[in-house]
Amino acid sequence: MLDKPDYKQIIKEIEVELKSIVSEGKVANYIPELAKVDPNKFAFHISSIDGENYGFGDLDEKFSIQSIAKVFSLTLAYKLNGEDIWKRVGVEPSGNPFNSLIQIEQENGIPRNPLINSGALVISDILYDTLSNPKVDLLNFIREITDNHDIEYNIKVANSEKKTGFRNSALINLMRSFGNINSDINDILDFYFHLCSVEMTVKELSKAFLLYTNHGKLLTNDKEIITSTMAKRINAIMHSCGFYDEAGEFSFKVGLPGKSGVGGGIAAIYPGKYSVAVWSPKLNSKGNSYLGMKALQLLTAKTKRSIF
Ligand code: GLN
Predict the structure, then answer these.
(1) For the whole model, what pTM was predicted?
(2) Ligand 1: lining residues by beta carbon, under 6 Å
């Protein structure tokens, strides 16, 4: 048995070591509002299952969680619709960029998984059909699992993406042609862009991800949000698909289920032990945070705790 890691000391060492790494990469600019973010922002926060919380950097600054929010919409759709969702979206890694169109045409409108854009659009369509007040109900769900009622959509970011979201538009139209989108395309795009515009601090994000660390139950009150089997499956999908065509590399170097977003955030979990969130807006060529990946690589090396 390994001793429990000294998280406090390890986080200090990570802070020092990251200072010597020059961040390569670029801030996402295909969503104009995101291009305005200071590239040098950085924050790191870990929440352990037994209540330890440590972090450094811009801890109280909200950022656009973007595709990380796809995990929350998947969780709600799975909770409300059960295994039926897998009739419309798969559970296989795509090996392609997050906004790729190629497989949708080849695979008859069924996205490979719920964490690429096509899959998240199908999940948005499912939720739109299921919820009575989609935007409000989804936000309330995210607030519940974060235990924080200040979580909001950033309407400017959502509208900015609406103006330039041509690939998402292409994806949803293509899927509609195969009969895998039911509601009005513009309503679903609007819902999806709002989902991606959710803002959180790294503290809030690591707290929200404790749900997946804690096998589907809220740590604060032991309420079961999803069954432990559902939590296990969502973690499996994060592990195999959360970093798109870099999922293998993330597994190889970090070894945790996780999810990235083009806002520069990454959230990851070690089942039963901890959840961690990191934010650094400069992205590598696959759209994942350059320094964020380095920080998590240091974390699993130093704690000797990854799923492997
Ligand atoms: N809103 C972004 C998009 O659809 C999310 C992509 C991401 O974070 N990888 O392009």
Answers:
(1) 0.97
(2) 66-67, 98-99, 117, 161, 168, 196, 261-262, 287
Q: Which amino acid residue places its CA nearest to atom 4 of ligand 1?
A: 117
Mean pLDDT, residues 187-193: 98
Ligand 1 atom index nearest CA of 98: 9
113, 90 Cβ separation under 8 angstroms: yes
pLDDT, tens digit, 9 for 90 and up, residues 68-79: 999 999 999 999
Per-domain residue ranges of the chain: 7-303
- Write out pLDDT tens, residues 202-243: 999 999 999 999 999 999 999 999 999 999 999 999 999 999
Please tell us whether the domain made up of 7-303 is placed in CATH 3.40.710.10: yes
Q: What is the pLDDT of residue 2?
A: 65
Which of 96, 39, 38, 69 is closest to 204 using CA atoms?
69
